């Protein structure tokens, strides 16, 4: 129980750092006029969720390497969720370093499934960013889904991202906000975080 509690505190701390860094990064950013409206992220929920995931991973026997990967990914997910909500942007500083670390780990350990998962997840979102010229789908979202694909692998990554897309579309329709931009990173982050224990446990 002590180990689970320590893990929960550590993962909560990771989330808190991500929250503070995203708030600092967004303080100088001007939301794009065609981007989603600014809002307030559910800070407490994000911290509690990360603590629960960390405790669950330890309970189910995750290895130290898996816990390190989970902490890195959850940092990126929380920071992206907050920055997209606060200023309508998924900043590269929160996606590129974690993605690079995952890809370097994959190459060094010859874990080619990580590379394949990242590429398969990234491709359709990158295509959407190209064809919409960043209006319908931003490059920040595409980089975030590459992290999701890398850590979740196939087919779980595809299923999680499909669930994120469906959830965003349904909620957007229920809120009758058709035509207004969606902050998509929270949906990607939620789907990835919920699927994470299935991969790393």
* DSSP helix fraction: over 70%
Describe the biggest sheet? none
Strand content: under 5%
What overall form do the CA principal axes indicate? Answer: globular
- Structural class assignment: mainly alpha
Concise structural overview:
This protein has 201 residues and is mostly helical. The chain is 77% helix and 0% strand.
What does this structure look like?
The structure is a single chain. This protein is globular. Helix 1 (about 1-25) runs antiparallel to helix 2 and helix 3 packs antiparallel against helix 6 (about 140-150). The chain is mostly helical. It has helices at about 1-25, 45-60, 65-85, 90-110, 110-130, 140-150, 155-175, 185-200. The model has no long low-confidence stretch (mean pLDDT about 90).
Main traits of this protein?
0% strand; 77% helix; mainly alpha; globular; 201 residues
Annotate the secondary structure layout.
Elements: H1 2-26, H2 43-59, H3 64-87, H4 92-109, H5 112-132, H6 139-152, H7 156-174, H8 185-200
Helix pairs in contact: 1-2, 1-3, 2-3, 2-8, 3-4, 3-6, 3-8, 4-5, 4-6, 5-6, 6-7, 6-8, 7-8
